[in-house]
Amino acid sequence: MYDMGTRKRALALVAQGRSLNSVSKETGVSRMAIRSWQSRIDPLPRMQRHPCARCGPVPEPLADEAAYSYLLGLYLGDGCISAGMRTGYFLRIACANAWPGLIDDCATAIEAINPSKKSARVQAVGCVSVVGYSHHWPCLFPQHGPGKKHDRKIALEPWQQEIVDAHPWEFIRGLIHSDGCRITNWTTRLVAGGQRRYEYPRYFFTNLSGDIITLFTDTLDRVGVEWRQANHRNISIARKASVALMDTHVGPKY
Fold first, then answer.
1. End-to-end alpha-carbon separation of the chain, Å?
2. pLDDT of residue 50
């Protein structure tokens, strides 16, 4: 993939009467590429790189920070970034077939953040991987790295934390949609001398990474949701007022 400056310089040398062979040696560009530029200098649409707000000389705010906050939660839970065969990267978010609304929301978020504005869906057994291809996923999600997330340090960059602070519920929703659930628990109470069944809703979030759990609970604290740590990898939200807040801003998967 050659930038427009390289293309124009090569064609300018050809216009001076230079042979394709000599221009190729000077610029390091193949003769076939230079020959093709003589009829079309612009890259084909499928080869064009799309600008990224984080990659310019001065990083700019993302166009849809709410969508980014949601996608960040999905990525930290069930997402991964892998290198393509040649160049670029694939962002994959695994979504269970049982939640078609979640799959749609995930695709919408990827399309809002992917500089190419594209996503694809890959069906597997019991799940759909929502995929976006871009050269820019590592700069948009600097938590990308070798190995499993729970085996390495996970921390937000200051610009990411600013987005989460501005859109905390979207971040919480993304984490719940990836590694959480809303369930109905039950217990028994003594009423009028007899035992009666009592049901109540509860949210759970499960993750093996202590860093990701801390990001989740810190954000819950900011929005006033009470929680407790059931064990080293499970966060429980069961108090009535807090569940009501979660129902208002997150809700069950669908």
1. 42
2. 59
| Residue 129 forms part of a structural domain | yes
The answer to whether the Cα torsion of 109, 113, 117, 121 is positive or negative is: negative
Domain count within the chain = 2
Q: What pLDDT is attached to residue 165? A: 98
User: In this structure, is the dihedral angle defined by the CA atoms of residues 152, 158, 159 and 160, taken in order, positive or negative?
Assistant: positive
Q: What CATH number did the domain enclosing 142 receive?
A: 3.10.28.10
Residue 28 sits in the same domain as residue 69 = no
- Determine whether 5 is exposed, middle or buried from the number of CB atoms within 10 Å of its CB (0-12, 13-18, 19+): exposed
Residue 208 lies inside a defined structural domain of this protein: yes
Domain assignment present for residue 55? The answer is no
Range(s) of the domain holding residue 13: 4-44
Q: Give the long-range contacts of residues 52-58, CB within 8 A, separation 24 or more.
A: 52/115, 52/134, 52/135, 52/136, 52/139, 52/140, 54/136, 54/139, 54/140, 54/159, 55/136, 55/139
Distance of alpha carbon 200 from alpha carbon 190, whole angstroms: 16
Chain centroid to Cα 185, Å, comes to: 31
Q: Are residues 153 and 77 in the same domain?
A: yes
pLDDT at site 252:
92
